[in-house]
Design brief:
about 800 residues; alpha+beta; Tachylectin-2, Chain A; eight-stranded mixed sheet; five-stranded antiparallel sheet; 14 helices; about 25% strand
Length: about 800
């Protein structure tokens, strides 16, 4: 005969019955009051083996708990399933409360064994016996996850915010998620079986109900792909957090006047849909530990607006203006990074020694530049893969026309530097000039280095040498008497180098008929050449590698883990008709034809031009699938949203129906009304009949015995109706006549008779049958302080068994 999964609990309660009955004779529960039958506590500081966690919470201790943690916290239980013999499978949620801070919290299900304290005694402890992790080795998940580049692809709290869990008839598991919201289906040990199931929007045909963290929207995708790139770098020993460097027009700045024109109004014939430009959120990325340095900003008013938005630096053609604006703005943060784009191309011809000199003259913190490789493998400064006719000319004065243009990769360094001078003044409407008299240091360096001209295209090595020469010029050389000599010399001695590898993995042809992928080096070659140049000059702490082609950045992280990488973002699209003015090379969000993602992003998926403009966010942050019941005959999942939807009545939430045989949502749904003080639901379970059940409903208080935490008994009516409900238990007023919850520590609240569960979030229910119910809290470790109010210590995980005053299905359910 199969043993009931509840026998161990029932046996413990049976032993307690005589003493409990005697105690009740002296202090019986009040009418309608639930009674505490058993309790067990898992200390807040309980950890399991695994990678370090909480690295994005620090550095200051939280409620007295030092962060980060050496292992994985066994905390934050948001769903519970019976495991038999008095044990339970318990599921923590996404970790630390947000998508931004939980990338190192592995999604797990733990097996716990409560050793209950009852009226007859008992230890009141919880032992952790086993765990398994949610993982996706079969690559079923079609969007970027933190561990995208690993074999097992273990899921984290930055991938999903799982809040509910049920077991299917075949033993597989279903998880309700809040970021999608999604339903996630795994094996009995957590292997993802297929892509997550999105929630169709029954009120808007053709749309899904989405939260702001939904991975099929561009708005959350920058964080997701950056998490993957950071995790990949860390796996190779890189401790430097990559930097986000987007086109400034892609920032979510709340200003409708700033937008990417190619996204706002795609040219006729391009085949591209309109899309929001508000897709990269600075505050969110900061919370996740990433710096944001946008490009290319030349307007002072826009510079100030971005500084006020909180960016960490600005890449500009006018370093003189950025420096001036940053100095005048009180919101400019310490360490603000003023980057001279291609040296300072609105002041001098780009990527030349004079352009670098004018950047240094303006005391920039970083010199930004681009490189290609010559035929003999030397990194040389150039934005274009060819010697551009507008920027360069033949040194001997012979004509150099468009038809004469040659690829850098087809010429040796000696040929390039002997043949060309790149002093073209092409930035009309700007103060750009090639007057050598304004670049005395570059002229002197060129003479010493044997270059034909100050505007000879320099190598990376010559750039490094030039900066050292510049520092000496103002220390002991001809510039030592300059009024700004000391500041210029000191700045040059520490200035950083932001060097972009110019690659194009596309197969489209450029105007010369040369395939893009054949006119630039392969990622391995260019990454290795640049990395070695930086390390040979001992500049690992002053130089970083940036690229639109993230394959290069992965190679840098692997081969040169002491270098910082910078991930560039831009949408300069390839059009269906290449004759359309303004078309470029597809950098870097646009996927290849027929590809689900783009090689630019190292194969990470990107939902190109799918934004909230196309599918608005109706689910609230932390408002997705919080509770999830099994329907009649275990044939249906009934996931329940924690909070109301945008555009729907705000005094109720919704329950949906998912057919476990077809793996499709049905048209059925129900409406759950909140109590006047209720703001969220914590869990939802039905009895075996599939009609009556319990919902945890709460306010947002903690440690407040006058707050609202309740079990609501509900009865489902016909689909489309509002559920009937009544209060089944006040979780802040539970009879404890036997004193099971005592003794209390100094400053604790809610212990004794009456007993209370005064936690912010209470998210676990197990129906034991009859009137008995298991309830657990989600302790939000290390943040919530609901029990230990006096000491300020973080909440423990508490498991209680309570007896309701009457069975779930009994009595009037007419209250709405």
């Amino acid at each position: 005969m199969r043993r009931s999964p509840f026998l161990a609990v029932a046996a413990a309660l049976a032993l307690a019955a005589p003493a409990a009955a005697q105690a009740r004779d002296h202090a019986p529960p009040l009418p309608g009051q639930a009674e505490l039958l058993a309790r067990a506590v898992l200390p807040a500081r309980t950890f399991a083996p695994g990678p370090a966690s909480g690295t994005l919470l620090g550095p200051a201790p939280i409620n007295g708990v030092p962060v980060p943690f050496a292992g994985q916290p066994v905390q934050g239980f948001s769903a519970t399933l019976p495991a038999g013999h008095g044990r339970y499978w318990v599921m923590p949620d996404n970790g630390y409360g947000s998508i931004e801070n939980s990338a190192d919290f592995d999604l797990r299900v733990y097996l716990i064994e409560p050793r209950l304290e009852t009226a007859r005694g008992g230890p009141g402890t919880i032992a952790v016996k086993d765990f398994f992790e949610l993982r996706d080795p079969g690559r079923e998940i079609p969007f970027a996850i933190v561990n995208a580049f690993t074999r097992d692809r273990v899921l984290t709290g930055a991938d999903f915010d799982i809040e509910s869990m049920q077991r299917d008839r075949d033993g597989t598991l279903w998880f309700g998620d809040e970021f999608g919201p999604f339903l996630l289906h795994t094996s009995a040990r957590g292997r993802v079986l297929h892509a997550p199931y999105p929630l169709p929007d029954p009120d808007h045909a053709g749309q899904e109900i989405r939260a702001p963290q939904n991975p099929f929207s561009e708005e959350s995708s920058t964080l997701r792909v950056m998490n993957a790139m950071r995790a990949d770098a860390q796996a190779h020993g890189d401790t430097k957090t990559p930097v986000v460097s987007p086109d400034a027009n892609l920032l979510d700045d709340g200003d409708p006047a700033t937008f990417d024109p190619f996204r706002h109004d795609p040219p006729a014939g391009s085949g591209l849909p309109k899309a929001s430009s508000e897709i990269i959120n600075v505050a969110s990325l900061h919370s996740a530990g990433f710096k944001v340095v946008p490009y290319t900003v030349d307007d002072p008013a826009r510079m100030k607006a971005l500084i006020d938005l909180g960016v960490d630096g600005i890449i500009s053609d006018r370093p003189d203006l950025v420096r001036r604006v940053a100095a005048a703005d009180p919101k400019t943060p310490a360490g603000f990074d003023v980057q001279a784009h291609r040296g300072g191309r609105d002041l001098r011809p780009e990527n030349t020694l004079p352009s670098m000199e004018v950047g240094l003259d303006n005391l920039v913190t970083t010199l930004e530049t681009d490189i290609h490789l010559t035929k003999d493998g030397v990194p040389i400064l150039s934005h274009d893969p060819y010697i551009d006719t507008g920027k360069c000319r033949n040194a001997d004065g012979t004509p150099y026309t468009f038809d004469d243009e040659v690829l850098i990769t087809d010429l040796t360094l000696a040929e390039i530097q002997a043949r060309f001078i790149c002093d073209g003044v092409i930035r009309t409407g700007t103060p750009q000039t090639n007057d050598r008299a304004l670049s005395p240091v570059a002229v002197a360096f060129a003479r010493q280095a044997g270059l034909a001209d100050a505007y000879t295209e320099p190598t990376v090595q010559q750039l490094f040498d030039f900066v050292s020469f510049y520092a000496d010029w103002f220390t002991t050389g001809p510039g030592q008497d300059d009024p700004d000599a000391a500041a210029r010399a000191a700045n040059a001695a520490k200035v950083r180098f932001n060097i972009e590898t110019k690659l194009n993995p596309r197969s489209d042809e450029d105007p010369h008929g040369i395939p893009f992928k054949h006119r630039t080096p392969d990622p391995e070659t260019i990454a290795t050449a640049l990395g070695r140049a930086i390390e040979d000059n001992h500049l690992a702490d002053r130089a970083d590698v940036q690229s639109f082609d993230w394959r290069t950045l992965r190679i840098v992280a692997r081969e040169f883990p002491n270098l910082l990488t910078v991930e560039l973002f831009g949408d300069f699209p390839v059009f269906a008709d290449p004759a359309i003015a303004g078309s470029d090379d597809g950098t870097n969000l646009q996927p290849e034809d027929g590809e689900a993602n783009t090689r630019w992003l190292a194969g990470l998926p990107w939902p190109y031009r799918h934004t909230k403009d196309e599918n608005p966010f109706r689910a609230q942050t932390s408002g997705g699938f919080e509770g999830m019941a099994l329907g009649h005959d275990r044939r249906t999942l009934l996931p329940m949203l924690e909070k109301p939807l945008a555009g729907a009545p705000q005094d109720r939430t919704q329950i949906f129906s998912f057919d476990l045989r077809t793996h499709r949502y049905t048209a059925d749904r129900w409406f759950y009304p909140y109590e006047p003080r209720g703001v969220s639901i914590g869990d939802f379970q039905l009895d075996h009949g599939g009609r009556d059940g319990l919902v945890i409903e709460r306010d947002n208080s903690q440690g407040d015995l006058d707050g609202f935490k309740a079990l609501e008994a509900i009865r489902l009516g016909a689909p489309g109706t509002t559920v009937a409900k009544r209060e089944a238990a006040d979780l802040l007023d539970i009879a404890d006549p036997a004193g099971i919850s005592l003794p209390a520590q100094p400053g604790d609240v809610g212990l004794g008779n009456p007993f209370a569960f005064p936690f912010n979030t209470i998210e676990d229910l197990v129906l034991l049958g009859g009137r008995d119910v298991v309830v657990l809290d989600d302790n939000n470790f290390p943040f919530s302080v609901g029990r230990h109010v006096g000491s300020g210590a973080p909440d423990d995980e508490e498991l209680i068994v309570i007896r309701l005053a009457r069975p779930i299905g009994a009595g009037d359910h007419g209250r709405r």
